[in-house]
Write a structure and sequence with these properties.
By secondary structure, this protein is an alpha+beta fold. The chain has two domains: 167 residues, Jelly Rolls (Sandwich); 109 residues, Homeodomain-like (Arc Repressor Mutant, subunit A). Helices cover 47% and strands 22% of the residues. The strands form two sheets. A six-stranded antiparallel beta sheet has the order 1-2-9-4-7-10. A four-stranded antiparallel beta sheet has the order 3-8-5-6, with no helix packed on it. Helix 3 packs antiparallel against helix 4, helix 5 crosses helix 7 and helix 9 packs across helix 10.
Length: 295
């Protein structure tokens, strides 16, 4: 490493880390490096939180109420809430430790609930760090030491990665057991993009070709998506958006002339705008504006 790990640990411990990621709500109580130059004992104790112990070097003996085990370099163990444990540490031991409260604000986030349930009920024993959690912790320390722009947000992101790496190491190479949130059905999502494109470019003379090039889809495919969603042709949908925007501008933008509104909606002239509006509403835009004023 090319930084002072003790200073990095001190700087990391000073940070107030309250992390919201997806539906995860993580409150970090401590984030530190424990270095022991002599044999050391931490007497029997427990936490109401989740504590991760990543062994960077050396070894220690963990004594539970009904069993004990050794944790060595390249391994980690987790003490879930309510687990009493005593730690007998050998000289030269270095441990990366994270203690946090972990909750989810969304009871429909099945993945988040699964992760929390895993960590709160995990068996306290050594696990091989096969997912690189220790290296992620080292990156956290490096960010805390250097404190370059964005370091706080990077540490927050890395903390989530660290927790997920530990959960993956516990579960082994198994596929996700919970469904992740997905976008709408493909065509519904594409139609939403088409709507946004039309709204954002309402001042232009939009065509099916313009939309298809933006979406990287064929013109027939664009027309089919719109037809399935609205029953309208592409031209009819564009005209409907322009008509609705025209009515809004005639009412709310009294500072604009009808000619200016026509230009802002991509019409080549006020005459064509008048004809378009009359076909839709039954009378010209000037009369519509007058009626709304008097109303």
């Amino acid at each position: 490493m090319n930084f002072d790990i003790t200073k990095a640990s001190d700087r990391l411990s000073e940070l107030d880390l309250k992390i919201i990621s997806g539906s995860f709500d993580i409150n970090v109580l401590w984030y530190r490096v424990m270095q022991c130059n002599n044999d050391h004992i931490i007497e029997r104790h427990t936490h109401s939180t989740i504590e991760f112990h990543f062994v960077y070097s050396g070894s220690c003996r963990v004594v539970l109420d009904n069993e004990s085990f050794f944790a060595r370099e390249g391994e980690f163990y987790i003490t879930a809430p309510g687990i009493y444990h005593r730690q007998e540490i050998n000289k030269g031991y270095v441990e990366f430790s994270l203690n946090c409260e972990l909750n989810t604000a969304d009871d429909q986030d099945y993945e988040g609930m699964y992760v929390i349930d895993t960590l709160k009920n995990v068996r306290c024993r050594p696990y091989k760090d096969v997912t690189g959690a220790t290296q992620i912790f080292m990156k956290v320390l490096e960010e805390a030491f250097n404190q370059n722009i964005g370091f706080y947000n990077n540490i927050c992101s890395l903390t989530v990665m660290l927790i997920m790496a530990a959960v993956r190491a516990i579960n082994g190479p198994s596929p996700a057991k919970c469904p992740a949130p997905v976008k709408q059905k493909k065509n519904a999502y594409r139609f939403s993009q088409i709507q946004d494109y039309i709204r954002n470019n309402i001042s232009l003379p939009i065509s099916t070709t313009d939309i298809s090039r933006y979406m990287f889809l064929g013109e027939k495919q664009v027309s089919r998506i719109i037809k399935e969603a609205t029953g309208k042709t592409t031209k009819e949908l564009i005209q409907e958006y322009k008509f609705q925007e025209a009515k809004t501008m005639l009412i709310e933008r009294q500072d604009l002339t009808i000619k200016q509104i026509a230009e802002k909606l991509g019409f080549s002239s006020q005459y064509y705008f008048n004809q378009f509006f009359k076909r839709k509403e039954g009378y010209p835009p000037g009369i519509f504006r007058k009626n709304t004023r008097s109303g």
